[in-house]
Amino acid sequence: MIFERPVGTVTRSPSFEPNTIALRYEDGTVRVDGLEETTVRRLRKSDARLELADDPRTGGHRSPAFRYARLRAALLEAVGTSTIDDGVLSLPSLPPLESTYELRAYQQEALSSWLETDRWADGATEPEAGIGTAPAGILELPTGSGKTVVALAAIERLGVPTLVVVPTIDLLEQWERELEAEFGAGGARGVGSADGVSIGRLGGGEQRLEPITVSTYDSAYLKADSIGDRFGLVVFDEVHHLGGEGYREIGRLLAAPGRLGLTATFERPDGAHDVIERIVGPLVHRIDADELAGEHLAPYDLKRLEVTLTADEREEYERNQETFTDYLAQSNIRMQSGSDYQELVKRSGSDPAAREALLARQRAREIARGSEAKIDALESILDRHREARTIVFTAHNDLAYEVSERFLIPTITHRTGAAERREVLERFREGTYSRIATSNVLDEGVDVPDASVAVVLSGSASEREFTQRLGRILRPKEDGRRALLYEVVTADTSEERAAKRRRSDSP
Question: Which residues form the Helicase ATP-binding domain (predicted)?
Answer without folding.
Answer: 128-265
